[in-house]
Amino acid sequence: MAIRTRFAPSPTGFLHIGGARTALFSWAYAKKHGGKFILRIEDTDVERSTPEAVQAILDGMAWLGLDYDEGPFYQMQRIETYKKVLQTMIDAGSAYYCYSSKEELEVLREQQTLQGLKPRYDGKWRPDASKTLPPIPKDIPPVIRFKNPLTGVVVWDDLVKGRIEIANTELDDLIIARADGTPTYNFCVVVDDFEMGITQVIRGDDHVNNTPRQINMLKALGATIPQYAHLSMILGDDGQKLSKRHGAVSVMQYHEDGYLKEAVLNYLARLGWSHGDAEIFNMQQFCEWFDLDHITPSAAQFNTEKLNWLNAHYIKQVDLDLLAEDISARLGATNIETNGHAASGMPNLIPSLKSVLNLYRERANNLNQLAKDIAFFYQLPVANAADVEKHITADIKPAMTSLCEKLAKIEWTAEAIHAEINALVTSLQIKFPKIAMPLRVMLTGTAQSPSIDQVMALLGKEEALARINTYLNKNLK
RNA sequence: GUCCCCAUCGUCUAGAGGCCUAGGACACCUCCCUUUCACGGAGGCGACCGGGGUUCGAAUCCCCGUGGGGACGCCA
Residue A54 CB closer than 7 angstroms to strand B? Predict the structure, then answer.
C-alpha cells in the first residue's frame, strides 16, 4: 500500500522546533517510501486560530524545504463533510446528543476531582436499552458525543513506543461536535485521517491519550486503523519543557539568529533519531536512512552547542554564492553595502564579498557573527579601546612607518606583504606579533583576525595604508 | 488523584543476551599547529537510576521501587 503521512498543526502560533521535527520525520518517512506527505491545517478552534499563524507555519516549512504533496487542507473548509459523518454516526447509534450544560459538567468534574477520581462524563445522556433518558431541556443546545465502548481494551503497536494498551473503562464519551454544531479536534482528525488515507500517523506523544479514542471512532466508522508513531517531546536547553512562556521559539528565529537551514535540519534529524554513528548528513541521505525503528522513545534536550557545531560545518560547506547572498542580506540589514560602492569615510576599493567569505567562513559558526566579523572590510571599524591601548604603542611607530614605506612600493599580494613584515621583524630582531597585532587592531578594529597579510591583501593597498596612517598621524602613548 | 509514557557520560545518542574493559558526537581539559582569535589534528575526563529475579551469561528480558514527563476541555 502506498505510504501517506501527514503533518497537522493547529494554527495558534508559529512553527516551533518540536513541530518542525514532527514535520521533518513525517516528510522523511513519506520520501523514504516513495509516498505522499500531506499538510493539514487543524483550525477548528476558531477562537485561537489565526491566518498569521497559518502563514508562519507555511513560512517555517518553506524555509526548511519541507514540501508537501497534498494540501494544505483546512478543516474549517471541510465542515460539511464532518457534519455528514456526524449524522451517519447518530443514525447508526454510535453517537448521541447530550444536553448536559457546561456548568453541570464543571460541577461534575469538581466533585470527581474532590473524590480523587479521574474527571469524566457520567453518561447521563448516553442511550441505553435498559434506561430511560431524562426529558430534553428546551433551552440547552446539545453537543454530540461519541458512544465509546464500555468494556474491553484498545491496543496498538506504537511504532516508536511499542505496544500500548488502554482500557475502555478509562475513556469516556467525548464530545465530537460542539453546541454550535462545529466538530471538535479528535473527531476531525479521525475523519480526515480516514478520508485522506493516512497510513502512518507520526505526531507528538502528547497525543498518546487521544489515540485510543480515535481508534474507537475509526472502528465505528469501519475505517482501516493507521499505524501510529508517537514522538517524545523536545526539552529546552535547560532541560525544562518548552512553552510559549519559556523558551519556545519559531524555527524562523533560527534563521534570524544566524543559522543555516542545513544545520537546523541536520540537528533536528539527530534529535531523537540515529543512524549508527552518523552525525553529519544531508537531507537526501536522511531520507534514505530514515526509519521509525531508530527513534528514541524518551524526551530529548535541545543543545545549542551542538547546533552551533553543525552550523560551523555547514557554513564551511555551503555554496559560496548562497553564502554571499545570505551575508549580504544580513549586512544590508545594518546598512552596510558590499557590492562595489565605497562606504562613507572609506574612499578606496572594496573587496568582493565572496573573497572575504572565502577567508572568513572557515572560522565562523554563526552567520550573524560572520557578518559582524567582516563588516570592517566595508566600513571603517571602531577600534576596541583596550586593544588599541595594548597593541598600538608609541614604540612601534618607527617600525610601522618604515613598514608603510616598504609596503607602498610592493605588488599587493599576501605573500609579498608577509615577506615585508618578516624582513622588518628580522632586521629589528622583534617577534612577528609585535607588528602583526597593532596592524590587526588598526585595520580590523579588533585583536582577532585571520592571517594579517591575507586580510591586508583583501583590504587593498590604499585602504590598508590609509587606516595605518590614521594611527601614525596620532600621538601614540 | 487516576491512566499512560520514559530512564546509558553534563547533552544528543550506539546498543535487539555473550562482539561491552559500554562505542560515536557536542561540550570540557591537555598537547600539537600558529602571527592573535578561531579552524584543524592527536590524546584525556566522563554513563548503563536502585533492588530483586530469569539465564552459564543482563545495559539488553521480567517484577517492584525511585525519579522525570504527559494526559485527564464544548483546546488542538
Answer: no
Residue whose entry in the numeric block shows the C-alpha cell 602613548:
A477
C-alpha–C-alpha distance, residues A446 and A343, integer Å: 19
Whether any strand B atom is under 7 angstroms from the Cβ of A209: the reply reads yes
pTM: 0.93
* pLDDT score for A338: 64
What single letter denotes the amino acid at residue A366?
Answer: N
In whole angstroms, what is the distance from residue A37 CA to residue A70 CA?
Answer: 7
C-alpha cell at A450: 585571520
Which is nearest to A231 in space by CA: A24, A2, A11, A1? A24
| Residue A79 CB coordination number (10 Å) | 15
Q: State the average pLDDT over residues A239-249.
A: 78
Asked whether A315 and A322 are in contact (CB, 8 A), the reply is no
For residues A216 and A310, give the distance between their C-alpha atoms in angstroms, rounded to a whole number. Answer: 44
What integer is the mean pLDDT of A283-289?
96
Q: Model ipTM?
A: 0.95
As a whole number of angstroms, the distance between CA A212 and CA A166 comes to 7
Sign of CA pseudo-dihedral A74, A80, A85, A90: positive
A270 touches strand B (CB under 7 A): yes
A287-318 residue pLDDT tens: 999 999 999 999 999 999 999 999 999 999 99
Q: State the amino acid at position A189 in one-letter form.
A: V
A471: confidence class by pLDDT, cuts 50, 70, 90:
confident
